[in-house]
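In response to the reviewer comment on reproducibility (Comment 2.3), we provide here a single inverse folding case reported in full, input and output, so that an independent group could reproduce the run without further information from us. The structure tokens appear first.
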């Protein structure tokens, strides 16, 4: 595994960056850090290279990949039309954790990138290593999160190594990622634009900038079929069964005690404010309720921590559905396979 100083500026003398870019040009898969999670990159114009991503991850072929670019000016070569709303979003949020869906230009990408759709998701990541590798490769880089399909996304090079060692050409170690959850996916082919996956940029932030934004109904009603292919899969799942909880500290403590009386070892994932008040067999403090960006930052590392412990059940406390809390709850509910434990039955907010 290579180590690259996270604060590298776009200095292409870096031998590791050059080597990674060469590997990409030669059709290999390379994992690199972005500001959200680690991505597993390949040349988006090569069928064989993109196939390498699906093979390494064990990813279903009907789930399209996001194409990463290092400069917004590349966009016109890749997509049919960028309207004024998309331009405003790009100016404000790129580089950053916002993926925009456009009608694709035919014949530019491998068909596997877009899984047969006539649209493509494009993003310019806000991380110097990612930007340098993409620019040096001189190609649009298809990159899903660098985890085995179904597992939590990797937020450190060690997570990538754990999941994909021996299956990919290289990992660039840029330290821990910052945001911790993936980019927001926003469909710009419809008016008003529609959020298909909540992520690092909140609906409130997008609304503040462009006005009206709608949310894919399946994100709020679990009986609806998601519009984004990737959203229908179980995801982020630890080995032990996970339940999302909503209720008072007293109820939570009683719930844990009841499982323990049945001989079960109980793990609890919650912000520090709860962890300080509750006893369980294995406690993982995940950020603070006062600043949910800290919870997002540690979320996947926290979920992965349970795989190292022999717990029989994991309870994960829900967070408030505001700002980045929407993305956190989306990931938790998916990790739980939609299993909830709720103190007051009418209190389910998703
Ligand atoms: O933060 C991120 O977005 C990370 C880093 C590596 O950039 N990437 C990432 O990629 O999360 P991935 O493949 O794990 O998730 C891509 C999501 C999937 O839910 C996929 O279905 C959706 O984006 N997507 C991609 N292209 C799409 C399209 N044309 N239409 C609808 N959804 C699309
Ligand atoms: Mg993923």
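Designed residues, in position order:
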């Amino acid at each position: 595994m290579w180590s690259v100083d996270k604060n590298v500026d776009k200095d292409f003398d870096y031998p590791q960056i050059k080597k990674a870019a060469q590997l990409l040009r030669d059709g290999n898969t390379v994992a690199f850090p972005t500001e959200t999670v680690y991505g597993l990159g390949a040349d988006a114009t090569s069928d064989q290279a993109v196939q390498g991503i699906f093979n390494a991850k064990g990813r279903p072929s009907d789930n399209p990949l996001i194409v990463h670019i290092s400069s917004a000016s590349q966009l016109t070569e890749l997509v049919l039309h960028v309207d004024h709303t998309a331009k405003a979003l790009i100016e404000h949020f790129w580089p950053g954790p916002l993926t925009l869906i456009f009608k694709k230009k035919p014949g530019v990408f491998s068909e596997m990138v877009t899984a047969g759709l006539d649209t493509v998701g494009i993003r310019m990541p806000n991380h110097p290593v990612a930007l340098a590798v993409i620019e040096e490769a001189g190609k649009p880089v298809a990159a899903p999160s660098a985890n085995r399909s179904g597992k939590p996304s990797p937020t450190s090079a060690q997570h990538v190594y754990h999941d994909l060692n021996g299956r990919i050409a290289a990992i660039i170690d840029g330290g821990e990622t910052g945001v911790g959850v993936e980019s927001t996916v926003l469909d710009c082919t419809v008016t008003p634009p529609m959020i298909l996956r909540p992520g690092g940029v909140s609906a409130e932030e997008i609304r503040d900038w462009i006005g009206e934004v709608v949310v894919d109904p399946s994100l709020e009603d679990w009986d609806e079929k998601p519009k984004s292919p990737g959203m229908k899969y179980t995801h982020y799942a630890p080995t032990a069964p996970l339940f999302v909880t909503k209720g008072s500290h007293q109820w939570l403590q009683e719930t844990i005690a009841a499982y323990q009386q049945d001989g079960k070892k109980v793990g609890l994932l919650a912000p520090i404010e709860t962890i300080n008040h509750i006893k369980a067999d294995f406690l993982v403090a995940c950020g603070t309720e006062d600043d949910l960006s800290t919870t997002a930052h540690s979320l996947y590392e926290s979920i992965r921590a349970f795989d190292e412990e022999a717990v029989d059940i994991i309870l994960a406390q829900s967070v408030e559905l505001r700002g980045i809390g929407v993305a956190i709850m989306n990931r938790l509910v998916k990790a739980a396979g939609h299993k909830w434990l709720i103190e007051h039955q009418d209190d389910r907010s998703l």
